Task: inverse folding
């Protein structure tokens, strides 16, 4: 799991480096989207904008790690369940275990745990499948809480920058003794830019989070269907060979 997250973080760092290179090229060429983005980043106060950028990078790293993990876990269980059923129809429990052991994904792990307790009775098999299903569900949901944290943090940091910008504007008014637009423009710009970037980061992470939830729900539904099928297969095995 740590290696998977490290790979995701390295990919995002590489992406950030390439973006910085493009921004530098835009400076040389005298304009472009990246140059405009860099300008707004600086105008929004580097302190708060850096925190928002770090939130985006870390949030995307967790999202990418979960996307990779869930896509690797999402397999079609039809072939697996058919192979296990065929093996048990022949009384070949070890063959069924081998099929489950050699297949990746949470469904195969659940099936293997149930098959290892096949000699203890259907009730034990069912309890094993349910219990280990909960373990696999927890693994699938791992790190999603971090994504929700960064979704909440991004606009909060933006609003914090807004408050600081307003304080800067009032400080400027106090120093100058004037409330003209020119005096307060700098602080107001900081306030608005940090809020905009914080909301944009939250929206980006929210899209990825919803995708992850949809993927997770699909896998959990497959796990539930497969668990029912596995229990039915175990019952057929007992009726045929343990009667």
Result:
């Amino acid at each position: 799991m740590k290696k998977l997250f490290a790979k995701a973080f390295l990919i995002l760092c590489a992406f950030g480096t390439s973006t910085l290179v493009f921004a530098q090229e835009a400076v040389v060429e005298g304009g472009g989207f990246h140059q405009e983005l860099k300008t707004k980043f600086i105008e929004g106060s580097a302190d708060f904008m850096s925190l928002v950028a770090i939130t985006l990078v870390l949030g995307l790293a967790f999202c990418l790690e979960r996307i990779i993990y869930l896509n690797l876990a999402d397999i079609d269980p039809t072939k697996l369940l058919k192979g296990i059923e065929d093996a048990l129809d022949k009384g070949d429990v070890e063959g069924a275990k081998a099929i489950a052991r050699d297949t990746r994904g949470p469904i195969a792990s659940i099936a293997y745990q149930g098959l290892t307790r096949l000699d203890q009775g259907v009730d034990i098999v069912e309890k094993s499948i349910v219990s280990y299903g909960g373990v696999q569900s927890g693994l699938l949901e791992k790190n999603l809480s971090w994504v929700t944290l960064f979704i909440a943090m991004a606009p909060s940091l933006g609003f914090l920058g807004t408050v600081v910008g307003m304080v800067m504007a009032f400080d400027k008014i106090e120093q100058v003794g004037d409330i003209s637009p020119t005096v307060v423009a700098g602080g107001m710009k900081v306030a608005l830019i940090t809020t905009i970037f914080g909301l944009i980061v939250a929206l980006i992470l929210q899209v990825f989070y919803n995708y992850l939830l949809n993927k997770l729900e699909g896998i959990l539904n497959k796990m539930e269907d497969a668990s029912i099928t596995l229990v039915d297969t175990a019952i057929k095995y007992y009726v045929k060979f343990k009667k």
